[in-house]
Amino acid sequence: MDDICLRKGGGLDRLLAIMARLRDPKTGCPWDIEQDFASIAPYTIEEAYEVADAIEREAWDELEGELGDLLLQVVYHARMGEEEGRFDFHAVAERVAQKMVDRHPHIWGDASRDKSAEQQVADWEAAKARERTGGVLDGVALGLPALLRAVKLQNRAARVGFDWPETGMVLDKLREEAAELVEARETLGPEALAEEMGDMLFVMANLARHLGVEPEGALRAANAKFERRFRSIEDALAAQGKTPAESDLAEMDALWDAAKRAEKTE
Q1: Which CATH number goes with the domain that contains 177?
Q2: What is the rounded CA–CA span in Å between residue 70 and residue 73?
Q3: What 3 state SS string does 230-252 have?
Q4: 133-168: per-residue pLDDT in tens?
Q5: Alpha-carbon Rg of the chain, whole angstroms?
Q6: What region holds the NTP pyrophosphohydrolase MazG-like domain (predicted)?
Q7: Per the domain annotation, does 100 fall within a domain?
Q8: C-alpha separations of 23 from 30, 37, 80 in Å
């Protein structure tokens, strides 16, 4: 008997059939049967980050597999939607296909293509705004990383004029928040300190937006730099037969500066 789940080259139809088999209440996988939207959502987020990580590292040999893992998440959610009579994979695909047509009148309509990429982005956001119901900030996903969500909230507010007109004012606000953070550290409790820290991070996100810097990417790069330099410290200490725990801050700080100098000469 021909089983599409075992048929190589079946592509998307094969993947859909595999998911249906895994979720079959009688013959499926016990783990897969137990899952719901909420339990699968963290895996969806994780797989999206793994795609971004492969791209960041230019690990093109890994990207195909990571994209497949992310596609599986869409198939998984679509299968659960079908089981509940809400939607299926084809409805999901049709909905996004229609959205792309509607949002590109310069391709599938009579609008002019003679626009910059920046203007296209502005038109896209304007189309999204027309489709939205509710308040200006409605629909900014709660599950986004906090830094990314901060920028999206600020962008939404800026579109209706709630924004500092120039970068210097954001820097002034940052200095103000830094002073309040110092005060909270010296005079207030942990809850107030956390609130002031959040305010400062929010302003930092706004500063990045005003400078045209994507803060998630900037922080990822800073993380990678820290890892690279700290590993240089570990390597230098290992050459002396030591570990970081057997060193002290002064020695490690000197090795950190050496790693910085080495990077600048490369």
Answers
A1: 1.10.287.1080
A2: 5
A3: HHHHHHHHHHCCCCHHHCCHHHH
A4: 778 888 888 888 899 999 999 999 998 899 999 999
A5: 25
A6: 35-108, 171-229
A7: no
A8: 8, 13, 8
- What digits encode the pLDDT tens for the residues 209-220? 999 999 988 998
> Which tokens belong to 235?
């390597």
Amino acid at 145: P
47 and 8: one domain? yes
DSSP letter at 86 equals: S
- The H or E element containing residue 89 is helix 89-102
SS3 of residue 10 by DSSP: coil
**CA–CA separation, 152 and 136 (whole Å):** 11
CB 201 within 8 A of CB 177: no
Both tokens of residue 56? 């960041």
Asked whether the beta carbons of 66 and 54 are under 8 A apart, the reply is yes
- Closest Cα partner for 252 from 220, 265, 260? 260
Domain boundary among 59, 87, 115: 87
* Alpha carbon distances (Å) from 8 to 2, 98, 225: 11, 30, 42
What's the CA angle centered on 14, arms 13 and 17, to 5 degrees? 85
Q: Is 103 exposed, middle or buried (0-12, 13-18, 19+ CB in 10 A)?
A: middle
The tokens for 150 are 């901060």
Predicted confidence band at 1 (pLDDT cuts at 50, 70, 90)?
A: very low
- Rounded CA-CA distance 74/115 in Å is 33
Distance, in Å, from the CA atom of 73 to the CA atom of 69, rounded to the nearest integer, reads: 7
Rounded to 10 deg, the angle between the 215-239 and 249-265 helix axes is: 110
